User: Fold this.
Amino acid sequence: MNTPKISPRLPLALLLGLGLFSAQVSASNGFNSEASHAAGGAVMAGALVWASDAWTPQYDRAWVGFSVSAALGILVQYHEYDKGTNTASEALLDAASHTLGAAIGAYVTDGYLLSPVVKPEHGGSYVGVDFSFRF
Assistant:
C-alpha cells in the first residue's frame, strides 16, 4: 500500500498560518498558563527538529530542536523579566514550562513523527526501525 507523501513545507506552513491568526492573550500563573507554555515549547521544538532534519542533517536534529527552542524560551522570559512584565519567579516558571515542553516535543518529533536516521558514523552506522500498526 502506498502511503501519501506529505510535503516537507506543510508543517511549516501550518505553523506560520496558525501563528498569523492567533491573538494576543494574557495569562496567570495557573495550570492553563504553564500548559500553554509547554505546548508552545513542544510545537516550537517539533518545528525546529523538522527544520534541522531538512536543512542541517549533519547535526543531531533532536538536540538542535530542543536546545534552540529552550534557549529562545529562556531569552523571551528573561526579556519579560527585564521589562518588568514578569517577576523572577513567574519568568522562571514560564521558562521551565517551555523547556519541559521543548524536551517532550523534540523527543516525540524525532522518535515518532520523522523517519529514522540512517547515516554513517565514526564507530559504525546508526540505523533506526520504522514500524506502524493498523487499527
